[in-house]
Design a protein that fits this description.
The structure holds 2 protein chains of 2 kinds. By secondary structure, chain A is an alpha+beta fold. Chain A contains 8 helices and 20 strands. In chain A, strands 6-7-8-3-9-10 form a 6-stranded mixed beta sheet, with helices on both faces. In chain A, strands 13-12-11-14-20 form a 5-stranded antiparallel beta sheet, with no helix packed on it. In chain A, a hairpin with a 2-residue loop joins strand 11 and strand 12 (258-262). The longest helix of chain A has 18 residues, at 173-190. Chain A is elongated, with a radius of gyration of 25 Å. The model of chain A has no long low-confidence stretch (mean pLDDT 91). By secondary structure, chain B is mostly helical. Chain B has helices at residues 16-38, 54-61, 63-95, 103-110, 112-115, 118-136, 142-166, 170-177, 182-211, 214-219, 227-235, 241-265. The longest helix of chain B is centred in the N-terminal third of the chain and has 33 residues, at 63-95. The radius of gyration of chain B is 24 Å and the shape is globular. The chains are: A alpha+beta, B mainly alpha. Adenosine-5'-diphosphate binds at residues 16-17, 23, 25, 43, 45-51 of chain A.
């Protein structure tokens, strides 16, 4: 991965329709995607992920803002004039062409000599392990194989950027896991910048270099998977990704970049702050902490105490659903490293929070 | 277990079988009789005197039959050809674009021949073409080609449009994404995928043109008989089994084309 920007998006917006029917699908997107990056757009259905991809590919014209690919402004250029290829959600393989003809189509349209088209097609067939299927029609291969052909077809012209719109959503779980690894391998081998769209947070966390979490046409947070997971900055992001405890707590001290809050029961705990947020002492802030970042400990080491209401055992871990002194629910995820007895409801459980794990949200 | 409710079935209505049989008899018996007597060795339409191909030989030797058959075939080919090109453009213009105001109206206008009674179109053409003939002095086949073309357009348009509507528009996006210009995307993706619809449209309009009596009857000038209008003219005189032989051959040709049409438009497994 290099730090040269591949895609630079500034103030990009898209409004569909006019007047009373106008609907703004994207508003003021600012985004820089680096060369060779595996970049993911993550968000619920309808948040504008496909629209953003379509703007980058050139299928749709932005209402405002600028879009540069490889340093060049692409406004007014059609999809056939952009160094970008797309893997469509439904694959969109050409049904009247063989697998090999599908893969060679882009190079043929670029006017490459026949020998080069054939050579690259062979390489691509090998890259996605589809050599044996070269002369089949798309209707004669399985869904997973169609997926690989769609990938090979989009990679064959060696685009600067590959756009993938929920490419794995039509596959069953086992095949999806397999293709996740395959995609990651292809991205590393080719060094092409991938912009990957998904609504599946686990897929986003496992595959991406960076993730942009989107909601209602906006990017809410942008960062590495661990930043997004451990350092959410707004409630939506914390809630959308993984499981989270929300606690409203009073601020007792503020330093640069962090604040101290009072936990239920009075213990002081340090919490990290999103960039640019400085609460005042006495403010009540919303904090988050993941269930696995709280441990059941000896009473002397505890930050706070909860009363067990129920627990859910699922092998490697057990979820303990507690209630804190102020009545707030709190879920703790205990790893079953020792053969502990399952606790009785009503048990008082002393809890310690992983230092630094508490996070204050911008709200 | 006896209380299973059977769904309504039209086949259990009283008289269903009888009506079905009667319908098929009415549909096919006259044609069977027509074909049967085309092989009659005698002159009669009611008294079979033995098997013979003499009327087929007579039909093939009849120069008038040859002349009108050739005219029918090239007229149908020309009209169906032009109608198919126009219908393809119309289908692309009405389905491959964003909805526009008046779209339904245009759809209705294109399909006018399906809605206006043929005899009305015929009389309208008679008056209009007579006027043109007087004004221009031209009395050639152009009028028949133009009238047949106009009449055939909806029959070409409907199968092409149906095919176009089943085409996934993302295929064209994918082609554009893979550096195809709009013309290349049409040439390499849309057109090849449209071919079955275009062929079906051509065949259907070919048969329609071959068939039509009314339009031709009203528009033709002297010496421009087609096979159907020639046959109609002959029927006013003595009817020999030669007419049966011509009709049988005509029927066979139509069946071949219509069968090909169904094979082309049939949904693939
Ligand atoms: N062509 C269009 N016309 C009107 N609204 C559209 C169009 N395309 C997308 N939208 C709307 O924009 C929003 C975002 O859509 P999309 O980008 O497809 O979301 P996602 O891919 O995140 O599910 C949706 O509410 C959708 O209905
Ligand atoms: Mg989408």
């Amino acid at each position: 991965m290099s730090d040269r920007p591949e895609i630079e998006i500034a103030g990009l917006g898209k409004t569909f329709g006019q007047g009373a029917n106008a609907f703004t699908a994207l508003q003021d997107i600012d985004l820089t995607i680096d060369t060779g990056e595996f970049f993911t757009l993550l968000g619920p259905s309808g948040c504008g992920k496909t629209t953003l991809l379509r703007l980058i590919a050139g299928f749709e014209a932005p209402t405002k803002g600028s879009l540069r690919i490889g340093g060049e402004e692409v406004a007014g250029k059609g999809p056939n004039e952009r160094p970008v290829n797309t893997v469509f959600q439904n694959y969109a393989l050409f049904p009247h062409m063989t697998v090999a003809q599908n893969i060679g189509f882009g190079l043929k349209m670029l006017g490459k000599p026949r020998a080069e088209v054939d050579k690259t097609t062979k390489e691509m067939l090998a890259l996605v392990r589809m050599e044996a299927m070269a002369d089949r029609k798309p209707s004669e291969i399985s869904g997973g194989q169609q997926q690989r052909v769609a990938l090979a077809r989009a990679l064959a012209p060696r685009p600067r950027v590959l756009l993938l719109d929920e490419p794995l959503s039509a596959l069953d779980l086992k095949l999806r896991k397999e293709m996740q690894g395959e995609l990651k391998r292809l991205q590393t081998e080719t060094g092409i910048t991938f912009v990957f769209v998904t609504h599946d947070q686990e897929e986003a966390l496992t595959m991406s270099d960076r993730i942009a979490v989107m909601s209602a046409g906006k990017i809410l947070q942008l960062g590495s998977p661990s930043e997004i997971y451990h350092r959410p900055s707004v409630r939506f992001v914390a809630d959308f990704i993984g499981e989270t405890n929300f606690l409203d707590l009073p601020v007792t001290a503020v330093e640069s970049g962090k604040a101290t809050v009072a936990l239920p029961g009075g213990t002081q705990a340090e919490a990290s702050l999103p960039d640019g947020l400085t609460p005042a002492v006495g403010d009540t802030v919303t904090t988050v902490i993941r269930p696995e970042q709280a441990q059941v400990v000896a009473p002397a080491e505890a930050d706070m105490t909860g009363t067990l209401e129920s627990h859910v055992f699922f092998g490697t871990d057990t979820y303990l659903h507690l209630r804190l002194p102020g009545g707030e629910p709190f879920t703790l995820r205990r790893q079953n490293t020792v053969l502990a007895d399952e606790p009785e409801p009503g048990t008082e459980m002393p809890i310690r929070l992983t230092p630094g794990a508490l996070r204050i949200l911008r709200e | 277990m006896s209380a299973v409710v059977k769904p309504f079935s039209v086949r259990r209505l009283p008289g269903f079988g009888a009506i079905a049989i009667l319908t098929f008899v009415l549909l096919y018996l006259p044609i069977v009789i027509l074909v049967f007597y085309s092989f009659n060795a005698g002159q009669s339409q009611s008294n079979f005197e033995g098997f013979s191909l003499r009327w087929y030989a007579a039909a093939f030797a009849n120069e008038q039959v040859q002349e009108v058959s050739v005219r029918s075939l090239w007229l149908a080919a020309a009209a169906a050809g032009i109608a198919t090109v126009l219908a393809t453009l119309a289908a692309l213009g009405t389905t491959r674009v964003a909805r526009f105001p008046g779209q339904t109206m245009i759809y209705a206008l294109i399909n006018q021949p399906l809605m206006v009674p043929e005899v009305v179109t015929g009389i309208a053409l008679l008056i209009f073409v007579a006027f043109l003939k007087v004004q221009t002095g031209y009395t050639g086949m152009g009028y028949l080609v133009a009238s047949h073309t106009a009449f055939c357009i909806p029959f070409a348009y409907l199968p092409i449009r149906a095919r176009l509507e089943t085409l996934d528009p993302t295929l064209e996006s994918a082609a554009a994404d893979l550096y195809a210009s709009p013309v290349q995307a049409f040439r390499f993706i849309t057109l090849p995928l449209l071919v079955p619809g275009i062929l079906a449209g051509f065949m259907l309009s070919f048969v329609i043109s071959l068939d039509t009596v009314v339009i031709t009857e009203f528009v033709k000038s002297a010496g421009q008989d087609t096979l159907p209008t020639y046959m109609l003219g002959q029927l006013r005189r003595v009817v020999t089994p030669e007419m049966n032989a011509i009709a049988t051959l005509f029927l066979a040709l139509s069946l071949v084309i219509v069968t090909a049409f169904f094979l082309l438009t049939r949904k693939r497994g």
